[in-house]
Records
---
Amino acid sequence: HAEIHSETLYLDIRYTPLSPPPPSLGIFSKMLVEPSILEFYHDTPTPKEWRDCQLKQLMFYNNACTLAKREDRPFPSPPLLWVLSAGKPTTVIQGSALQKSSQWPRGFYERGPEDRMFLVAIRELPQTPETLPLRLLGAGKIWLQALQEVLQRPASDPLLLHRRHPAVVTTSSRGRQPPELRVTQRDAMTW
């Protein structure tokens, strides 16, 4: 019997949809149809960083189950974990037995369905309008190409317009208490 202590971990983004995401977000809108944790890496995540992401998902889920038990509610589903990496973390993919996803475009990797963990190698995404919002999160040539695509779009393009989308989003600056931000139709998030 051993007690486990852990330092406080912070999620980059915890997303809880209050309505379907706007289709103008392309593949990103399909990713955000249910509660999710998003972790972003400008460089490729190391195996330790990947395990930290898994730990965050498991700890968040454990806390949600503890609260549900206390309130005599059914346990929720674990949130989806989306790790977005500018590059392809080959060591993580091989070491964690991630497989190319059959349900998502090239660049999406996943573990078994019960794990609810995905890795998106932004560098590998196909260059399509549907992947543009994700490719804007890339680095180097990928980011520059995506930016060029944005600049070539007409001003009336739905991707470029301010979108009103209700959601509950929690963001974090590592090492500080994350502020909770409730976004409503009245004061909407700009996508």
---
Amino acid sequence: HAGGGERRPFVFAGYETLFTFSNPVRGNVMRLAQCVVLPPHQRKGHGARLVARAAALARARDNVCELTVEDPAPGFVGTRDAVDVRDAKRTADERDKKRTTRGVARGVEGLFFEDDANDDGDATTSDDPAAANADDATAPAAALPSCAPLDPAALERGRKRLKLTRAQLTRVYETHALAAVDAADSSTADG
């Protein structure tokens, strides 16, 4: 206890159970088996913090390829979706800040449509015919597909970066796409 203030006891609010197993096809998978928040502490963000911590732990471990959830309850699905969408946006924002793409922000689409080789350098897409000119400082950054359908290569890039299942990646990407459509609709409705 640091400082001279009043001591406040710790209160048991909930817990989560994680384990890692080896999948012969995909590699090591981290599974969130239980996430429990006791009733007096529910609806205060504790469940979301537990899920976010599990996702951060999975992303921090190089030997883990994805985080799965064991038979999620319907109420838990919304919490997981919200955490994963927020984490994807945060990951994209952090990635954009580190990039040297002459000020081009890529956002969530960049997590799916840009090759790993571009994480620290110029932003080009795997489909970009000008990729060979990526070292040319005068070459314009390639435009990314806006809410384009996800192909297997895009899903694999997203899976490596976010360590989510393909089904969950699709949910995250579709939520992002829906938000972009909603924003576009509201801006044209005013004009």
